[in-house]
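Why does this matter for the project? Reviewers at the last site visit asked to see concrete outputs rather than summary tables. In response, this paragraph embeds two records directly. Each consists of the residue sequence and, immediately after it, the corresponding structure tokens. Nothing has been edited or filtered.
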Amino acid sequence: MPVISRSPYGNFFSWFRNGHLETIYPSVFRKIKGLPYERERIDTPDGDFLDLDWVQTGSNKLIIVSHGLEGNTTRHYIKSCVRYFHQKGYDVLAWNYRSCSGEINRTLRLYHHGVTDDLETVIQHTISTRRYKRIGLVGYSMGGSTTLKYLGENGVNVPKHIVAAAVFSVPCNLWDSAHQLTFRKNTFYRKRFLKKLIQKVKQKHAQFPDAVNISAIDRIKSFGLFDERYTAPLHGFRNARHFYSTSSSDLHYHSITVPSLIVNALNDPLLGEKCYPYETCQNSKTLTLETPRCGGHVGFGLRGKNYSWMDQRAFEYIDRYMQEWSLH
């Protein structure tokens, strides 16, 4: 499939040709109001729960949306995507990863880039309890990584209902993405993520004091150390190196059978060169890589619009396959 290096995306304002500004501006200033979510809580096979937020029109087409690290279904990019597809006549389901819906989860484990069983639970629940004939997947940052890893792990066994996926600002290679967060220029993002994650580990300690040691946790300043002490042991990895080397979504791209669009801006401050899988996508029958020269990390604003270019691009890509499916 093609690599689209000359993307049609033109960035928000001419003076925003800066990956950090394009990332931070919408995160701080963009507000999406009045979305009529209907919440559903479902149980997981291991005794935990997931909170799903629905916007329904009565359509037989569904979009399932996955958020990024320490995000949730109230984030501006999620609500914007939900609203856009809803206005186009789709039912939309935005789901919260464990512990991200405003209530800490029950089990010791949390979530991470490489875990796909909760997305599997959401998809299977939807298929078994609803009447949808066609399903599209949209993911942002970590949610994009989870989406691609799920598709690759399942390969030819992906449910026939899933016709296409569109993902944005994807840390395709965890080693490379974690390394980017060590740079001084990314101190803001590193501190912000770690503050939230450390607070969540403290909540886990309150639930499981014998299983989670939080001594010196407030001195952690790097993702490498956080993943070594907490992400890895809480989720069955030997250490951070084992976590990074086995959880990257790019390990599974060769097995993806569902048409999938990966959009990673060239000025994304959180992605290194290994997060742009040019060769893999050129040799794939199902993957398309699009690399706009600007857009930042989950930015992609459009001047004078109440939606983002990500919303527009995801709809254009997925709806085409929805229409092709309906002709079969």
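We now turn to the second protein, recorded in exactly the same manner.
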Amino acid sequence: MSSVLLAAVRCDHGDVDALLNEVGQTLCGQGKRVQGALQTRGLDNGECHCADMDLQIIGSDRSYRISQSLGPQSRGCRLNSGALAECAAYLEQNLSSDVDLLILNRFGRGESEGKGFRDLIGAAIASDVPVLTALRPAYVEAWAAFGAEMACELPTERSAVLDWFQDVQDARACA
């Protein structure tokens, strides 16, 4: 089994959400079993400087609104941690060990504080399911501390992500 079950694509530049979606579609098109949640953004709702954010469950019509309206003058974090927790619980309840890849939109503030998708990532690791996520520079240290020798960072490149996935699949086949 590959010791690098966790991979994070850096969010330094480019549309990481589109990349994760493209990788998921590519792998599903190859017959791989992919689960997880991808972030989508709606139009700016006019109440603040941010667009609404949803997590779309891969292969499902189910989605979770993870942003909340805080009013027109708000500058604080709009993340709805309750909706994120509900999404994580749903994914963990439906996680099976025959999944080829779990894709999660971010390893961010919640995960760095032991919340968000952190327990789900732990459940995936315990089931030897590889996890692909995205990572902002502010959370690199938390990612490294959490993942230790099981984690790596990847460039924002489709080929790098698919190469990592193939390496993990090859290692799983040999185990």
